[in-house]
Amino acid sequence: MKHYDLFIGGAAAKPQSGVWFDSINPYTGEVWAKIAKADSNDVSAAVASAKAAFEGWAGTHPSQRGRLLYKLADIIEANAERLAEIEVRSNGKLYAEMLGQLRYLPQWYRYFGGLADKIEGAVLPTDKANIFNFTRYEPLGVVALITAWNSPLLLLSFKLAAALAAGNTAVIKPSEFTSASALEFAELCVQAGFPKGVVNVVTGLGAETGQILCRHPDVAKISFTGSDATGAKIAEQAGKDLKRVSLELGGKSPNIVFEDADQEAAVMGAISGIFAASGQTCIAGSRLLLQSTIHDKFMARLLEVARAAKVGDPMNPDTNVGPVATEPQYKKVLGYLDIAKKEGAKCVLGGGPYTGPGAKGNLFVEPTIFTGVNNKMRIAQEEVFGPVLAVIPFKDEAEALAIANDIPFGLAAGVWTKDVGRMIRMSEKLRAGTVWVNTYRAISYMSPFGGYKRSGMGRENGQDEIYEYLQTKSVWIATETAAVNPFVMR
Ligand code: TXE
Description:
The longest helix is centred in the N-terminal third of the chain and has 20 residues. By secondary structure, the chain is α/β, with parallel strands linked by helices. Helix 2 runs antiparallel to helix 5, helix 2 packs across helix 7 and helix 3 crosses helix 4. Strands 15-16-17-14-13-19-20 form a seven-stranded mixed beta sheet, sandwiched between helices. The protein binds ligand TXE. The site of ligand TXE has 27 residues, from helix 8, helix 9 and helix 12.
């Protein structure tokens, strides 16, 4: 049994509470690690260590910060298999998926490492005589990075690479369900040569450790990935404390298939939108909008492919669908299956716990499809975060748009069509931070990602993100000194 301590000031630190909690393997149901529970003293120690490291890190030449991020990228690459296995042990996602993520992860550190020495202010023309005015972008200080369990290190890297490149120091609070990988990752930061205190990790429950961290007066910004309910709580408190906050909060994304689309490609896109990762992704295409003219034929093929999906051991390369990650999540998903049935949606695939070949532990849910869904139903409006697809028919483009946008969320949307004009019209009118056309689930370190409406605020990835971790200073230098009237504005 592996015991994980906290990570503070560049080294493992025992929790002052003396308490460790269980990390459970969702596939086997067994406790595989013990994770330290950080109390307020531990959080204070972690924030103090990040604060002490801040001046030095912010003052480190940006090219040197970039070099360290590059080095970290190489070390992650060398540890990808090991880290991917830890992720699978914690959240039960497919090894193939987690290894793909881990092998991709170094790119975040290279991209933002490369950007570190390209953060440029500007010399601004002003209307004032004899003034030289320029801007500087400066880091914020200590940032709290709070992440979810579905893709732990990927979600962390969405935040950490930019935060560090910009010159901030970090205290990470991973999900209590998947804490091990962040602690292993912090050790890699030491190997890469990051100064002590630049990266710290506190582990524990959200409502305890997470909340204490968010409220700490020396935390300048909170960057959060998780549920909209928790995001709203964090933003409310951050408002009172006047802290910056950025939020990535999941969604209920529409995947819209028109009659002129490449049908086979769209079927695969629909499957990847909802059954990949057992539907536990913020960008899940959990509402499939089908043009009525193709509905029955499309459904026949979709069901054929979905039925062939292999459920089982996430470490097995042949498995397509693994368990749900946690017991609360399992109960939540089953709850929504009941809700959908009561609402009158027609269950055409699955609809309950999966106990067939390959199942182990108690957290498997059948890949499930409901047809005849009305967009007003809860199964269409609320995030299930499981392998559950709601199929909604539509007549024409206008109706597709109306249904797609009639939702509190706006993280992503998929459109399947061969009509170029429609691609452009739809991408303009869909109220979502990401629109995919004839593809789904494409994400890159190079392209901004984030939500409209209740899917969040702020952007991760791409050059936009660096400004989430910087503040602008405007500097005014008089080129000629003169004694002027002090009682009027210059
Ligand atoms: O999320 P929480 P949970 C959605 C998905 C899922 C639901 C619940 O629908 O069913 O959220 O998942 C920390 N102050 N998403 O319970 O509660 C917590 O410890 C500070 C969508 O895991 O939002 C964890 O580290 N921190 C999402 C993180 O917040 C707090 C991905 C997320 O926990 C806190 C995952 C508090 N008061 C779930 N309370 C996405 N955007 O993709 C909790 N935390």
